[in-house]
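User: Second chain of the day. Same drill as before.
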Amino acid sequence: MRADGPRLATWLLLGPALLWLVLLIVLPHVDMLLVSLRLRAGFGQYQTSAVHYLAFFTEPLYWRTFMRTAVMSILATFLTLVIAFPVAWYIAKMVRGRVRSLLFLACLVPFWVSELVRTYGWMILLRETGVVSGFLQWSGLASGPVEMLYNDVAVMVGLVYASMLFMVVPLVTTLDSLDDSLIEAAYDLGGNAWSVLREIVIPFAMPGIVSGCIVVFMLSLGNYLTPVLLGGKDSMWFTEQIFTQFIVRFNWEQGAAFGVLLLVLSSLIVWLGLKLTRQSFTEVMR
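Assistant: Same format as last time:
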């Protein structure tokens, strides 16, 4: 009975998480897969078919939209990493105590409001009658209103801003565990800032870099509000295609197929990224 006690306690602690995982993630995805394999043969009648998956590969608009979404998401991930790494280094190594807490809080504060509110904030800043356009006209840098919305740059700014915290947190956690004596020893042996960064800091921080990139990439690839609001109707984002199939065309079978393809193809891209960086998923998650 004593041996069963800890085991029972473990299952009781894991029970809510497993229940949440099964009910809200596994079962909906299984149902979406089953819906995607249905083909309407009549009123209330269906037959099993993979025609909705074939439509993705035979219609250039669909797979080109996905490729564009994937490339833009990879670029957003790279830019987020480039911006977040110095921030994370400064928080983890350059400051201590209350200042560090305040800087980390400053990164967290924007996420106290919803993504929709934050995106509308960027629209207020970048629209033709917005703050940035007004400042450019006031300073004489522009002779008239400047429209900065509804383009890829605006979408990229929104994606990077929306994902910054999810890159900073794993980087701070990883860099904080880096022993300062290793960096001091590297400088004592004749290393410069670039060689220390390349040979010590980046290899040590690689698990945090990869885990942050995975989260940011998946969030960017599956983002809907930011591309649609900042990029307009011509944003050409794959999640917009899914929304169109489900809500506009009421073609749930095609929308479910696109959802499954988004999950499979994004997972494949993440797997390829892990292979290229020679990182294992278990090590990164650890």
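The chain has one domain: 60-285.

User: Great, on to the next one.
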